[in-house]
Amino acid sequence: MQALVFAVLFSVAVSVLLKLAQRGNFIMGQAVAFNYVVASALTYVFLKPTFNGQSLQIFLLQSPEMPLIILMGLVLPSLFIIMYRAIVYAGITRADAAQRLSLFLPIVAAFVIFGEKATQNKLIGVGLAFLALICLMIRPNAKNHQNSAENSGPAVSLKGVFKAMLALFLVWLGYGIVDILFKNIAKMGGVFPNTLFLAFVLAGCFMFIYLVLTRTVWTMFSVLVGLLLGALNFGNILFYIKAHQALSQDPTLVFAGMNIGVISLATIVGGLFFRERLSKINLLGLVLGVAAIICLFYYAAL
């Protein structure tokens, strides 16, 4: 449970960093690219992946985890771009809702793919988790946070609606798939540092290629944000995987706990430090979130 708490703290720290970074000359793609440079370096230093004297190319080609590594390398950076597009086409509130409701996919995977038993306690906990997420995502001033593109001509056109729906669906699908992939990495035990390191390296390569092809104009501030982002992102992913390893028989607790923990803590931090208004339904969401965690954790502790 301690690893899950640290994963939540690092995840919220990432959100706070990105929120503060928006006040400067900040380009998301550049920060994401350098984020993977730092994440790769920290994985190599602290997790010490071993390749048995082989070069990375040979190890990658001969590794049975190669499909998973390549998939992670593609999905991780792509999600940042897709999330950005979702915010542009559909607004911040809807994009965030799609990300959080992606919890549905790993929960289903926990029962169907990972063989977790659907007990009454767990189903109640999952139900409370979704209710909590819905309550926490309802903002009293949500309309004010919508991107201006929602009110412009293209956004209300058929083409604009299609772009928004597609972006939101890809956010929902992408974040759900990433959660499932991290669970698969956690199942590798002592081999997971190799997979994580190579996934970060590939993600960084793909991101830099994307930036070169789009002819980005580099800024030092974005690079600095990326370096700090990489350290926080590494901590987030590392402890999330460790939480799955520590609670290997209860993936629903990790999936639900991570989502509820992040949005609950982010709600509290937003209210205390960024003066974001909290409604009564948000406070109800916090209570339901705690109830869901207690319900899921109580079963796991039996």
Characterization of this structure:
By secondary structure, the protein is mainly α. 78% of the residues lie in helices and 0% in strands. It has helices at residues 2-21, 28-47, 56-62, 66-90, 92-101, 104-112, 120-137, 153-156, 158-186, 192-213, 220-246, 251-273, 280-301. Helix 2 (28-47) packs antiparallel against helix 10, helix 2 (28-47) crosses helix 11 (220-246) and helix 6 (104-112) runs antiparallel to helix 12. It is globular and about 45 Å long. The two termini are 14 Å apart. 41% of the residues are buried. Residues 142-155 have low confidence and may be disordered.
Keywords summarizing the entry:
mainly alpha; 0% strand; 302 residues; 78% helix; single chain
